Amino acid sequence: MRRSFNMGRSFMLFVIILPIMTILSILLYTEYVQTKDNVFNILQKHLLDEKSTLFKNYSNFLTQRLGANLASTIHKDKLAYKHYEQELSLLQGNDIKYLYLLYKDKSGKFRFLLDATKNPQDKAFFKQKFDPQTDIWEKAYRSKKPQITKQDNLDTLWMTIAYPLIVDNKVVAVLGADFTYDVYDKIVNTLKPMEKIHYYVSLFMVIMLVVAYILIYLYYINRKKSFIDPLTQVYNRQYLYEFLKTSSLQHYQLMMIDLDHFKQINDTYGHDVGDMVLISVVKEIKANIRKNDLLIRFGGEEFLVLTYKQDLKGCVSVASRIKNAIMIHKMKFSQREILMTISIGINPFPFHSKNFDEAIKIADEQLYNAKISGRNCIKVSQKGTTEQTQSSKRIIDVNSALEEDRIKCAYQPILCVKTNKIVKYEMLLRLVDKNKSVTLPMDFLPSIRHTNIYVNITKIVLDNAIQTLRENNFELTINLDLQDIMNDDIVKLLSDKFKDHRKLAERLYIEILEHEEITNFRTITKHIAILKNLGFKIALDDFGSGFANFKYLIHLDIDVLKIDGSLIRDVHTNKRTYHIIETISTFAKKMNIKTVAEQIETKNEFETLKALGIDYLQGYYIGKPYLKYS
Amino acid sequence: MIRFIVVFFTLFLYTHADDKQLASSLLYKVAQAVTNKQAPNIYLHHREKIRFDFDFTKFNIVNNCKEADVVILPSTKRLQRECRKKILLGTNTNTLKSRRVIGAFFWQKGRPNIIFYKKRLQKKHIKLDKSFNKYIE
After folding, report:
1. How confident is the model at residue A121 (pLDDT cuts 50, 70, 90)?
2. Which residues of B touch A129 (CB under 8 A)?
3. Is the ipTM of this complex over 0.90?
4. What CATH number is attached to the domain comprising A579?
5. Are residues A531 and A397 located together in one domain of the fold?
């Protein structure tokens, strides 16, 4: 299966921004060049308009004076010839480099009639043949209209105009004017530094882009290589952990495969044959799994298969297929025939394990069972099966409790030490069974966590909180799991419920519980910022035990620290506990974070914590949770 | 990659070919036409006086008229006897005044110009390709 590799957000951002910057710089450069061309075009038009008027006047003047026999008249009289050349030179300004009058002889060749050029090297002799480089002269003769051409092939000339002299609707001569680059050069030289900057920036960006893409490509290739086992060409363990960063095991079943007596193959035939056996076995496994399944070389002769969206029966069927295929597959190496068998251990519900290592452990235990059961067999973990059955049962119970309005909120009072008054309550979820016994959230929430029922229960808690806050002035605390805070749906739900109730949100504390260490601080920080923007206050539960530690305070914007109950229990007798809480209290005060001590059950605990400067106290000593606050 | 670099530089040189390259290339073609040789031996008479800066690096330049097929000259002054028998090609209009010079290639008004005289060509038994007809007077 072709799988993509996570390249990192900043890397991807770079990949997107760089081409945009390059395109922008090229656009800027082309826009600049376009503007420059427009300026030249305007200038050219202006120049041509001006000269056209001048040439028109001269043309009228000359044709009226000399008529249709213009060429022959000039030829006849050498004195007149000099005189007409002087007159022509009067038209020549700084911008015209060469100005001359041409006529067409009987053979159709153009010849100089007059030449206003002063430089003897450039001046044409009388009747000298003129070699036209372009067809504007012919066109001027035919069309009887002025013709213009840009002299792209010549270095010193910019453009040439051919202006026909017409008598009786017949062209008798053509006035030629070559314009110099002087004006053009002046403008170009003025604009050159600017153009160079644009050009080099664009060039630099293009080079950067090419280099960046080459680097990305090389990085991608190397990264891919690091995830592929060079011998078998399947993914390695490193890729597995990369895969788990972005994928959930919810839809996968876990299979551990081990080659039976592989060591003997290596010892008997050597490592080369051993390697070939591994390659051959991988080929067979690949042939018996689907594209969506993932095959990993986990260790030497140990493989791991994650089968996608199979039920238990389907997963066992895939395992049997692999086992049987390998069993009958004859591997021939240097005229030797080797038959291999494999043992497989299956964990059908890896998602129910605390973490992936535990899921592997379960599959590995089954693999071990398969090995001690004589090898060449499949063993399936029953742990997950039981849990799943129980879980399914629990989901039905919770769903019916939800429908029958047996999901309730209990309220436990929290005392403010400073005012010695109950200022807030912690809302605690309770499931009331049909026989009126109460089930605690820890006994039913895990089974419904990834279902829609969980979101519905959260809705009930939030509706209850809104109503309670509306009816009272005290503050409330609700508990949300770390996974809830990470969950976009739950954050959206909180936002939807409280977006029009900011005043109420400001009196609501969200206590974050966590069962695993935070690794993705980016998402959690982002979501906490969203919640705080809505007005909520954030409390960190069970501080001082488990995963909740000082590291979190560096990354998370916390308002309240709730010290873990296990630390409170013997605070008045245990010096170490006493000092830990004292340190937490001092630290929190410095950080401007309020502290709450929970699970206070005795007067001694109460007095000690009060003396330690804890801001709020909670526990049976202050008040038990009741379904109605009082 | 190497092919790309070669193509790139060829295009670069082509688009940046200046008047000097253009004139040199035309002069060489004229020399080829009048001698009817692919690589004519050329003698440059008064090379230092040739006004236009031609690029002669691709020409077969010889040191004396004896070996030359064609003599390119900016002036007919002090022309050695053995040179006079050769095909003389001027680089300006003044050289055309001498009847020994069959024609001239010169740069005037920023443009290349070629002039040949029919009688002078006939005298030297030179037959030019039809494409040169427009340059013959």
Report:
1. confident
2. 113, 115, 135, 137
3. no
4. 3.20.20.450
5. yes
